[in-house]
User: What shape does this take?
Amino acid sequence: MFRKLTDIIYVAPQIGVADVSEAAALGVTLIINNRPEDESADQTPGADVEAAANAAGLAYVAIPVTHAGFAEWQVTAMADALEKAEGKVLAYCRSGTRSTLLWALARASRGDHPAVLSEQAADAGYDLSPVTAMMDMVRGRAS
Assistant: This one.
């Protein structure tokens, strides 16, 4: 269920309360919820995942992303969360795609090369082509 982007970053489709212990067993110390609340009737509420994370000793942050796209505050919040994490990170959304795209934008904004990010995402089964131009733009700001 969890897909490995790097040695410390995992992404996943919607997780449930039971998945938190699996994440903790992998060494995850931070869970990032990139899914807006009430996006679909079958999703586990973020508050439930947050409570399970806190009970397991994991940090939790919500950076919701709708299908409308990415805002600068989301990219900055994701980059900051990744940099402050003191261990492995699990980010999730409906399919893992928005989490992967936001991760790539966040890393590009801190100077990572888009080609390297694209390769890491492809190895995990994700395509960054929808944000290639944005990665180049935010990386240009980081230079």
User: Anything to note?
Assistant: The beta strands are 3-4, 9-12, 28-33, 59-62, 88-92. Helices lie at 17-25, 46-55, 72-84, 97-109, 114-123, 132-142.
